[in-house]
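Q: What would this chain look like folded?
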Amino acid sequence: MASNSTLTGTYESLPKIAKIILQIFLGALISGLYRICRFLEKQNVVTLVVGILCFVGLGFVFWVIDLVTEITSDRITVLAD
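A: My prediction, written as structure tokens:
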């Protein structure tokens, strides 16, 4: 595990099984928070908009997408620059 000082880096450094379990139980919340934290790091407005949309109604959609990307590529990749 790499030591990373950013919030998203800390999440990404978790073991794959831990991230999958977190996604199963808290996926909608993690989807929004991850993208908002990523916006604070990279300043990509699309990432912020998608992060906010996760909280107002698209949380289930991104929960499924993020779970699949965690399983296949070991990180959240869709609209999370």
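Residues 20 and 70 are 6 Å apart (CA to CA).
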